Fold:
Amino acid sequence: MVAPASTHRFAPRRQVQLTSADFCEHKYAWYRWMLEEAPVCAGRISVLRVSLVSRYGDCRAVLTDERFVRNRGRAKGRPNAGPAPFPLPKSVAAVATGMIVQDDPEHRRLRNLVNKAFTHRAVERLSHRVEELSRELLDGLAAQGSVDLLAAYSRPIPTRVIGEMMGVAREDVHHFERSIGVLTRGLSGVSILRSLFWDLPRTAAFVRALIDRKRASPGDDILSALIQAEEEGDRLSKDELVAMVFLLVVAGFETTLHLITNGVHTLLEHPDQLDRLRTQPDLWDSAVEEIVRHRGPIHTTKPQYATEDVTLHGYTIARGTPVLPMLGAANHDPRAFEKPDVFDVARSPNHHLGFGFGNHFCLGRQLALMETRIALKNLFERYPDLHLAIEPGRLELARIPGWHRYQSLPVALR
Ligand code: HEM
Structure:
């Protein structure tokens, strides 16, 4: 659980280790320290050195300042360098070069094409399916006294929605699930070789075959729309389509599942706010935005790389080095939010950074908000007495840099 800043000692450790248990369990206390005393500081992700920027205004600046780029090679004057500092299998390299790690004009071109497929109407159409799915899952829980809500409810909703978006049969969704792990957990750990040389290439082959099938007989899904998306005679190549499918699946699946889970936990921690939603259900939209601000799942963007030495608050970010705008900290910056540590379902305005900022602002925001609103509202309507089945202090946070997510969420339904 989050420790109050006063009980946490930071002074001797100027370098923030994002993979440490200490940071993972006390990240909001670390954020308070960063916001007040070290607005730009040195950090590490395991052995990788990074610079961390925590204040709201500075995060927005770093995400829009042209001296920072996404393409790691470009910052060092080698724009054609691969996506990783070591050689990757060809199919994996294609996956790792999605638009989220590209700069304009390449990024703009890809984003325009995907925007054509990701229309408001396509998302709206999915909302009926999310309603149905959530009710089906809640019916299925009725016989059980307690469950891991993450596995039984939060996970299946976005998994099936992404599957349907892409026109993937339900029995094939596991192809993605296995590969997603390595892409979100980062390139470390012993299973990395298996993932890089087995799971990812197999999933890439599955996606290629799926693209061929959709090209031959298009369906009423976003992948078919992506294949056909055209702007001024330009289309996505096959490698670009594969990378886009991976990006959409990775960006849209684990994020939403953990937003739903964090939302349940946050509302259980704030029964007064849950009561408010019961009497004022029109507050659900702003409540979900507030959950993203207060306990969103994504706490950093992809690294931005400095193209020249940049000095901020007396700290010099050296050319070519990665900088992480700490969205989770910025969302609790008192310079931007009144009483930032208070969870207020009616907060307005609420210009949080939980969906990023600038060119790479989340493409799936509307879909994520819709899925989460329906999932939470239906859950608390159906099981009004739902409560945690273990002591809050025993809930385990995953030690994954850039995330705020639980390993499981055991709840009693009645
Ligand atoms: C709770 C749910 C979600 C959260 C908190 C979230 C958060 C974010 C954040 C912080 C970024 C910026 C990353 C960066 O600058 O490096 C981003 C980008 C992106 N998100 Fe989301 N996201 C969510 C759901 C979704 C969904 C459902 C989709 C699509 C199915 C999606 C698709 C994307 C894409 C494609 C990008 C990259 C955009 C670009 O590079 O132009 N996201 N998201």
About this structure: The mean pLDDT is 89. The domain at 5-412 is CATH 1.10.630.10 (Cytochrome p450).
